[in-house]
Specification:
Elements: E1 5-9, H1 16-29, E2 34-37, E3 51-54, H2 56-65, H3 70-76, E4 78-80, E5 83-87, H4 96-103, H5 112-129, E6 136-140, H6 145-154, H7 159-173, E7 179-184, H8 188-198, H9 201-212, H10 215-219, H11 224-245, E8 249-254, H12 260-270
Parallel strand pairs: 1-6, 1-7, 2-6, 7-8
Antiparallel strand pairs: 3-5, 4-5
Length: about 270
């Protein structure tokens, strides 16, 4: 049975984006119809990006605060259950103050209980409402990385809570026979240092602040670059442990040697 869903995971700079594109091109050469959704894609069918989540009272308060944009807000809002979802990038050229206000209600700023429900329901909606056929979906970092940063980096939740959440998602996607490709490095600092130096100063400052000044980093008094390395090593070890307990077929690749020809050959065999 072939996979209808391929997920690529690993720390920043481990080769996720390049690999996702490689798999897409390889499958297309084989005549497979592929839909690739990478990190930051606002049209992602199972992960919210730049999307505000508001309850009824918050939604009505937004309408009152921005009366000139009332009709546009209603047009772009999608109600699911008790929540309104608004992709606030739609307003970038229209009203920066509205964008800033909506961003404060971003899905990834929700309390953890609400986030769990919202995330689970979106994955459920993806599986139930998508007509897969022979199509293959490729997702990058939305299964492990994004929940990990929310549960652990932001909220310092118990690892078992994250693991239970991922088990629920795994059960949802089981009919798609998913394959998860996970990149890890024994010498993580060596791999991450290269990425850290290549990225912009703005990225380094944001990434450091996010991981050091809330949740896990704050509780464990992590600081600066070495704190990041410590966090990412913890993340690698915990993700590897969690993966072993999930009912998801996974392919672990230690890619510290950067032998991409060998890695890609292994992937081709795995996705036949």
């Amino acid at each position: 049975m072939k996979s209808n869903l391929i997920i690529v995971e690993g720390i920043p700079g481990s080769g996720k984006s390049t690999t996702a594109n490689f798999i897409k091109e390889h499958l297309e050469k084989e005549g497979v119809k592929v839909k690739l959704f990478q990190e930051g894609d606002t049209s992602h069918p199972a992960d919210y990006e730049s999307t505000a989540c508001l309850n009824e009272g918050q939604f009505n308060a937004i309408l009152e605060k921005f009366p000139a944009r009332r009709e546009s807000i209603k047009e772009y809002a999608e109600k699911k259950g008790d929540h309104y979802f608004i992709s606030y990038r739609n307003f970038l050229d229209m009203d920066p103050s509205l964008v800033e206000h909506l961003a404060s209600y971003d899905v990834y700023e929700l309390d953890l209980d609400t986030f769990e429900d919202v995330s689970y329901n979106y994955w459920k909606e993806f599986v139930e409402e998508t007509v897969f056929g022979d199509d293959v979906y490729i997702f990058e970092c939305c299964f492990l990385q994004n929940p990990f940063t929310k549960f652990i980096a932001m909220h310092n939740a118990e690892p078992e809570r994250l693991e239970n959440h991922l088990k629920k998602i795994s059960s949802l996607i089981a009919p798609l026979n998913p394959l998860l490709v996970y990149f890890h490095q024994e010498n993580l600092e060596q791999s991450f240092n290269h990425v850290y130096e290549e990225r912009s100063q703005e990225w380094r400052e944001f990434f450091t602040d996010y991981h050091m000044n809330q949740g896990y980093g704050k509780e464990n008094e992590l600081k600066g670059y070495q704190g990041l390395v410590e966090f990412l090593e913890m993340r690698r070890d915990l993700e590897l442990r969690i993966l072993e307990g999930l009912p998801v077929r996974h392919m672990l690749i230690e890619n510290g040697d950067k032998d991409w020809d060998t890695y890609y050959e292994k992937m081709k065999e795995a996705i036949k």
